[in-house]
Design brief:
The chain has 142 residues and is mainly alpha-helical. It contains seven helices and no strands. The protein is globular.
Length: 142
């Protein structure tokens, strides 16, 4: 999915707004995903998946860092996330559908914390961005 200049601007604005809270959003996104889509817990058998878990917060920080990295390099998401794509495809072998589920949960978290920020246009841009991130992360599965 191609991001327009307006989409890129919207994505950068969202991440600029949530920048200092990205780690909390990452953890909340994972918590929401584990509750809403329990099958995603499969990849974390060694984690304490309870609310406020240090392990979930730690992985949420990684998720947030990857999304911030992608937003900072919105013109080259594939380059920015290349190593992460390799890791998920070759070592972790995460089911590709989970990236879409994670993106949906991230959108909900952003909407809950910033309802006025998520106009229909910004929502569409952020959805396209998250789809692009998911596509990049699953590209090396083929």
């Amino acid at each position: 999915m191609v991001l327009s200049a307006n989409d890129k601007s919207n994505v950068k604005a969202v991440f600029g707004k949530i920048g200092g809270q990205a780690e909390e959003y990452g953890a909340e996104t994972l918590e929401r995903m584990f509750i809403t889509y329990p099958q995603t817990k499969t990849y974390f058998p060694h984690f304490d998946l309870g609310k406020g878990s240090a392990q979930v917060k730690g992985h949420g920080k990684k998720v947030a860092a990857a999304l911030v990295e992608a937003a900072n390099h919105v013109d080259d998401i594939a380059g920015a996330l290349s190593k992460l794509s390799d890791l998920h495809a070759q070592k972790l072998r995460v089911d590709p559908v989970n990236f879409k589920l994670l993106g949906q949960c991230f959108l909900v978290v952003v909407a809950c914390h910033n309802p006025s920020l998520l106009t229909p246009e910004v929502h569409a841009s952020l959805d396209k961005f998250l789809c692009a991130v998911g596509t990049v992360l699953t590209a090396k599965y083929r």
